[in-house]
Design a protein that fits this description.
This protein is mainly alpha-helical. The chain has one domain. The chain is about 85% helix and about 0% strand. The chain contains four helices and no strands.
């Protein structure tokens, strides 16, 4: 059985992914997760961070898809192997930065969502 916190984190991750075209969408997703959970500040941070970690999965899968397409096109180019390895390293670095961005801002949103629960 899925706990309420996990379900709310999943809903927050869906909000993050759906609103990914909006800047700072992880803050919104983490805030939704913590607000739905009715959490205090520490639980809000935890639920928000979990929401960000779940939302990172589609970002990583999209990055791997992008690298595979770049690798396919790079095979016909001279020096394509070096280009493929270089792009893989760039995507890995970008993925780590994106994961820190997503999880960190989701935790911030979780804190703000728990603050909303306390104030409303």
């Amino acid at each position: 059985m899925v706990s309420d916190s996990t379900l709310h984190a999943l809903l927050g991750a869906v909000v993050t992914v759906v609103l990914s075209f909006v800047p700072f969408s992880p803050v919104l997703g983490g805030g939704v997760a913590a607000y739905l959970n009715g959490a205090d500040a520490s639980r809000g941070l935890r639920v928000g961070a979990l929401s960000g970690a779940i939302a990172t999965v589609p970002l990583v899968l999209f990055g791997l898809l992008l690298v595979s397409f770049l690798g396919l096109f790079a095979l016909g180019v001279e020096g394509g192997v070096a280009f493929g390895i270089g792009s893989l390293l760039v995507i890995i670095v970008f993925g780590v930065i994106a994961a820190v961005y997503t999880v960190g801002l989701s935790a911030l949103g979780g804190y703000l969502g728990s603050y909303l629960v306390d104030e409303v």
